[in-house]
Amino acid sequence: MSHVTSAVRTPLVTGGKTYADVTEDISKQVEGAPTREWTIAFIIAVVVLIYGTACLFWTWWEGLGVWGLNKTVGWAWDITNFVWWVGIGHAGTLISAILLLFRQKWRTAVNRAAEAMTIFAVICAASFIMMHAGRPWVAYWCLPLPNTLGSLWVNFKSPLVWDVFAISTYFTVSLVFWYMGLIPDLATIRDRARSKVSRYMYGAFSLGWNGSAKTWARYEYMSLILAGLSTPLVLSVHTIVSMDFATSVIPGWHTTIFPPYFVAGAIFSGFAMVQNLVLIIRVVFKLEDYITVEHIESMNKVITLTGSIVGVAYLTEFFIAWYSGVEFESYAFINRATGPYWWAYWAMMTCNVITPQLFWSRAIRRSIVWTFVLSVVVNIGMWFERFVIIVTSLHRDYLPSSWAMFHPTLFDISDYIFSFGLFFTLFLLFSKFLPVVNMAEVKTIIKSSSEKLPASVSGVAKGERVANPTFNKDVE
Amino acid sequence: MSDAHSNGKFLVGIYDDDDVVLQAVKDVKKAGVRIHEVYSPFPIHGLDVALGHPRSRLGIAAFMFALSGTITALSLTFYTEGFDWPMIVGGKDSYSPIIYVPIFFELTVLFCALGMVGTFLVSNGLGPTVKPLMYDLRTTDNKFAMAIDLSKNNIGEVDIEQILKSSGAAEVNVKQF
């Protein structure tokens, strides 16, 4: 699978790093004492989590009546937040699986953090499933278990049951994929560890890895199959989430465009969240040589593409609502754009369709500040997209006497805040105790894709590449 | 895993570069030395072939696990919806395999991934209580180690050391397990 990388390609690793530099730069933040910034951020996250947990317990104790739901709008922020988090959870496995199959080498620097983000986002999404079910202690009713409640089984025809299978499979496989990727790096930290505790902990979690050629060969083979499995899996998850809506007969939901439209939107919001996290990580952990402007630009290109797909989907939906001649459908869409929730609709349109188009400009695409701001805007827009789809479709029932509005209560908002506390607590723990960049994978691209120093300085460029500067041999 | 049973004296050649170690494997083998194993901080493409390791059969295991997942999903849906408690929801047939495709797919992927990773861990002898056999601690950082089992070679220690050095080894150490 060796192939050549043109020397005119921009390097993916700058600063003329050697293998030892990679280990040192990335292990450093795991081994050192927590920085002040990290400690402050962690305390804030935990405080938010504690507040959110308290509100969540009250939600469960008192019942879902504490939310602003009514008999017309029976699904609102809970499902909006669930779909939003699941969507965000699409970028990690997309980066590590699909980009592995496409041999996009820039993925090596960001896949670890993106996969961690995926796992934590799916945990947040799952927490909304638990919340909106109202009785988390009977969550096992979603599973096809033999029971004494009347020998009923779960309804396998329901997309909600498909969702149970899709999300739990996605979570499990993503977790396994991420953990397998971590093992060689955990072994690196184990072998550098000075304290007994960390040697024991990293030793246990690295499962006795010693990097033998046989293990590596099998490992590579396994990663390839896992990537092959995860690729359709990523696409299936949001497809099935979209079917929760698409298989119903609510105007505005009952459309066949939902699966591709949801998947594109998921990748769109996932990459935006990866941008936000990675832009912070690279500064705080001083990883600018590994996560370069090239990486950020590549991800912005994905955001532009998927954002445009989402834009086309919005317009197609509108067109079909008119072209179908179904008056309920037409009304649902006109009501979205001009009804009482017009502001949510136009917030969605602006944030998802208009502002990401700024990334056509190379200067904006490569600007850290613009990228950060636009990524936040994208995720605000994607939250509104789900809100618009869910609430505006429900709030106008078939009978005008049933028309209603949805107003969030303190608990709607607090339960959403809970998920942020959970997400950032987990992410900060990850960024302190685990290497945020995949060291082993970055080392594989050092020779072919890094900025070179003279051979005598770098100590790695001894091979034929120096004699033949036009092409670099790439070992992947 | 052969490592777990190996004991005795090893010569360990330490290399600085992955291309050098790949070439060294070929050179050392040509000189008639039996190589125990090579250890590296990242995968080196073609190294397993150069060492003569057989092609991994993990794919077969993965396929078998995938198949078992599909069969599980088929039998689960057929037993519950087609036999034990048929339900007609929305006027659809109580058992039509098409509507269960998402279940088939998800369980296939789940069984395949978990089964394959489990097989990988078992076949490589990896586990939380396993103590790694490290020929050199730097092989998880920036060095590449070629281990030679002296008990399995007829060539003398001094000669092997010379062969390793001339193949590009920066240093040659003795490791006793």
TrEMBL record, chain A:
Q: Please give the start and end residues of each transmembrane region.
A: 38-61, 81-102, 114-140, 160-182, 221-241, 261-281, 302-323, 343-360, 372-396, 416-437
Q: Which UniProt key words apply to this protein?
A: Cell membrane, Membrane, Transmembrane, Transmembrane helix
Query: What's the protein's topology in the membrane?
Result: Multi-pass membrane protein
Q: Which residues form a coiled coil?
A: none
| Keyword DNA-binding on entry | no
Q: State the source organism's domain of life.
A: Bacteria
* Membrane listed as a keyword: yes
List, alphabetically, the InterPro entries matched: NrfD-like (IPR005614)
User: Which PANTHER family does the annotation name?
Assistant: POLYSULPHIDE REDUCTASE NRFD (PTHR43044:SF2), PTHR43044
Q: Which family does it belong to?
A: Belongs to the NrfD family.
From the Swiss-Prot or TrEMBL record, give the protein name: Polysulfide reductase NrfD
**What gene, per UniProt, encodes this protein?**
nrfD
TrEMBL record, chain B:
Matching InterPro entries: ActD (IPR021776)
The alphabetized UniProt keywords are:
Membrane, Transmembrane, Transmembrane helix
Record flagged with keyword Transmembrane helix = yes
Q: Where do the TM regions start and end?
A: 58-79, 99-122
Q: What is this protein called?
A: DUF3341 domain-containing protein
Which Pfam family would be a valid example here? Answer: ActD
Species annotation? Spirosoma profusum
Q: Does the keyword Lipid metabolism apply?
A: no
